[in-house]
Amino acid sequence: MIPMTNDTNGRALAPVPRGGALTPSLLGGAASRSIPTGGRIRSGIQVLTPKAADVQEARAIYDDGVAQGRSFEAIGRDISARCPDLARPLRPKNVPYFTVRGEDFPNPEIARRIMDRYAEDKGDGVKRLYRFPVIFPADAWQNVMPHELAVWTHRERKFWSEYSEDGQTRYCMTHRPVPVSNGKRTVRLFGGRKAMLRPDNNGVCEPEACQEYQSGNCGLAGRFIFFMPGIESLDAFDLPTRSFYAMQAAIQKFQAIAFMRGGRISGFLDGRRTPFYITKRLLEVSMIGDDGQAKRVSQWIIELEAPIDVTSLLQPDDGVERLEHRAQEATAILEGRSNQAPKVDKDGVIDMGDAFAAPRRQQAGSAASVADDARPAERSAPEPRPSRAEPERPAARAPAPSTPTPQHISKGAATDKTAAAGDVAWIVDAAGALGISPDRFEQYADKRWGKGWKLAAGGRKRALDEVTLFADNGPGYQEKVRAELEVFS
């Protein structure tokens, strides 16, 4: 059965496939686990506020910083340091392209490589990044698009939202004050600053009653986390966004692609190494004005593209499983663990089925040698291999007989069957925990991975990976099985 976890009150939480309680996120589903990033692409630019634009020194700092490729945060800090009256000298501006600057990367050379490879000139003489390919490193969209409600200053994140372990309460968090030793020096903190519940609102995140949220200082903040094909980097890159529309649209595409790919959004989308693409599209979105009335404004919204023929994702992909099943049959024959005699054609080539179209031998001597070796009764038996059901022991054992005996053959076959049966039983039980009856799951599995999926190690592995992937989403897996058996039948 799929392991479960309980909170401190004994209430069951979501199933946990690999440990760790799964809690909700703001936009639904399980909360994300952190993926380290080492570079940032911006969704737009920042420009001087009208007040800052009237200050000559601020304009000079801004122009020099942009020309040098500095980050907007660094430019804003310099302006505030030189012009104390300008606490917030920059404001974001919505543009149809993305910004890549050297200071946003540990190695500024990476920014240059991204621009050289993917930037384009659309006729104005300036190369900009309008569209670029991405590969997501995880299958849960909450992991590749983490998000929260947060208040940011020009230096740090001041307040942010977190869920309780049972997923029932959304807390408002802040940094714990740095302790002072002997009233003189701050204490060096191991692991960075600690977090605590925000004291002035009892630590409860309630946007409708929050002064920061109502004033516009607190809002939904998220980021896409990805790798870029052709750009060498051990760490992933991220793209921050505060657009609810962009994140909601991305979730819908993530879920659609995952549904058609057996729960996967990571890696390339198909065998042609097709990636996702991130671009922008001009849309009219609804906003509530200061007067409380809805209005529509045009904005460039981040858009996630999946440029593939989606019908190709709906085709059953059982070729690999059939190939592995054929391979196991061939191995059993050659090792004397099968009651089925190998078929040898007139040229002396062993027939392993369509999946093993062995090349024809050109020389008669080679053909004769293959035909002789193919007879199980005429060759020495291999050393019995340990299976998962019977691990290898260091103790000495008697040498294998020169000819495979019926007892030896039946023992090897029984060991393999026992291990396979254990895997299949666990998989069927796990599917049952997700609401799929054994008969219905086996009907689905036979269609998806081929009739031999129970016997092929690869087939069992894919079935196990799939039920584990949907461990916290029983209704989703039921819908996937229903669609495979009833919609795409």
Shape: globular
Q: Quick check: average pLDDT?
A: 75
Q: What is the radius of gyration? A: 30 Å
- Given the helix and strand composition, which structural class is it? alpha+beta
Strand order, sheet with most strands: 1-14-13-7-8-9-12
What percentage of residues falls in helices of 4 or more residues?
25-40%
List keywords for this structure.
alpha+beta, 2 domains, 7-stranded mixed sheet, 3-stranded antiparallel sheet, 14 helices, 18 strands, 33% helix, 18% strand, disordered N terminus
Task: Write up what this structure looks like.
The chain has helices at residues 50-53, 56-67, 72-82, 108-118, 141-144, 211-214, 244-260, 310-313, 319-334, 364-373, 406-433, 438-449, 457-469, 474-487; strands at residues 37-40, 45-48, 90-93, 120-121, 127-128, 132-134, 147-152, 157-163, 170-175, 180-181, 185-186, 195-197, 218-226, 236-241, 276-288, 294-305, 343-344, 350-351. It has 489 residues and is α+β, with helices and mostly antiparallel strands. The chain folds into 2 domains: 37-44 and 94-313, no CATH class; 322-390 and 399-487, no CATH class. The strands form 6 sheets. It has a 7-stranded mixed β-sheet with strand order 1-14-13-7-8-9-12. A 3-stranded antiparallel β-sheet has the order 6-15-16. α2 packs antiparallel against α3 (72-82) and α11 (406-433) packs parallel to α13 (457-469). It is globular, with a radius of gyration of 30 Å.
How do you describe this structure in short?
With 489 residues, this protein is an alpha+beta fold. The protein is 33% helix and 18% strand. The protein has helices at residues 50-53, 56-67, 72-82, 108-118, 141-144, 211-214, 244-260, 310-313, 319-334, 364-373, 406-433, 438-449, 457-469, 474-487; strands spanning 37-40, 45-48, 90-93, 120-121, 127-128, 132-134, 147-152, 157-163, 170-175, 180-181, 185-186, 195-197, 218-226, 236-241, 276-288, 294-305, 343-344, 350-351.
